[in-house]
Design goal:
Distance between the termini: 38 Å
Number of helices: 2
Strand content: 5-15%
Structural class: alpha+beta
Number of strands: 2
Strand order of the largest sheet: 1-2
Shape: rod-shaped
Oligomer: single chain
Order of helices and strands: HHEE
Radius of gyration: 20 Å
Helix content: 55-70%
Largest sheet: 2 strands, antiparallel
Amino acid sequence: MDFEKKLSRLEEIVQKMEKGDLVLDDSLKLFEEGVKLSRDCHAQLTNAEAQVKKLVDFDAQGKAITEDFNTEGS
C-alpha cells in the first residue's frame, strides 16, 4: 500500500474511533491497525527525508552540487 493510501486509511480509522460508537473489540482492532499504519508512514517519511538533497550550486561542467537537506550552512 502506498503512503497516500495508508494515510487515508489512518484518517478513516481516526474518524471511526472519534465517533465513539464502536464495541471494544472493534476499537482495539482499529487501534492496532492505526498504530501499524502510523509506524509505516513514519518510516516512509524518514526514508524520504534521508533522500532529499538541497541544490547548492552547479560546477563548471553544469553538474548539480547538492548537500543533505538537514545540513546547516550557507
